[in-house]
Amino acid sequence: MTASPMRINALIIDATDPDGLAVFWSELLGRPVMGRTGPYVWLRREDGLGLGFQQTAEPKSGKNRMHFDITSADPAAEQQRVEALGGRRLEQYAEGGFLVMADPEGNEFCILPEGPFELDDEGRASYLS
């Protein structure tokens, strides 16, 4: 019997305020909040992938071990929108050339341009010039 490949069903983000974080990501991604189930708040499932926010007692500490890369035709404009929604730019990563942002609870994510962009031999980007 051949095993079926596994697939990612949902990404879950721990949050001290799952309702508030769901609203932030809902606005950012254009995925409406679909409801709450126990400690989880869910955004609309798209392309088979769920995105949920799980109530936790502890705030985030340290750097994420995994982060989202989201794309935009205009990363600079998206930076302003993220900041208006309560997020912030993480300047400590500016040397790498990526637009690294944090949501209101400090979870890191990158805003990348749509289409290809160059990386140097050390993995630094150059799309923010």
Sheet of most strands? 4 strands, mixed
CATH homologous superfamily classification of the largest domain? 2,3-Dihydroxybiphenyl 1,2-Dioxygenase, domain 1
Oligomer: single chain
Number of E strands:
8
CATH uppermost class of the largest domain:
Alpha Beta
Radius of gyration: 16 Å
Strand order in the largest sheet = 1-4-3-2
Number of helices: 2
Distance between the first and last residues' Cα: 53 Å
What does it look like?
The protein is of the alpha/beta class. It folds into two domains: about 10-55, Signal recognition particle alu RNA binding heterodimer, srp9/1 (2-Layer Sandwich); about 65-129, 2,3-Dihydroxybiphenyl 1,2-Dioxygenase, domain 1 (Roll), CATH 3.10.180. It contains two helices and eight strands; from the N terminus they run βαββββαβββ. The chain has helices spanning about 20-30, 75-85; strands spanning about 10-15, 35, 40-45, 50-55, 70, 90, 100, 110-115. The strands form two sheets. The chain has a four-stranded mixed β-sheet with strand order 1-4-3-2, covered by helices on one side. Strands 5-8-7-6 form a four-stranded mixed β-sheet, covered by helices on one side. It is globular.
Descriptors for this entry?
single chain, 129 residues, alpha/beta, Signal recognition particle alu RNA binding heterodimer, srp9/1, 2,3-Dihydroxybiphenyl 1,2-Dioxygenase, domain 1, 4-stranded mixed β-sheet, globular
Topology of this protein?
Elements: E1 10-15, H1 18-29, E2 33-37, E3 40-46, E4 49-55, E5 68-72, H2 75-84, E6 88-89, E7 99-102, E8 108-113
Parallel strand pairs: 1-4, 5-8
Antiparallel strand pairs: 2-3, 3-4, 6-7, 7-8
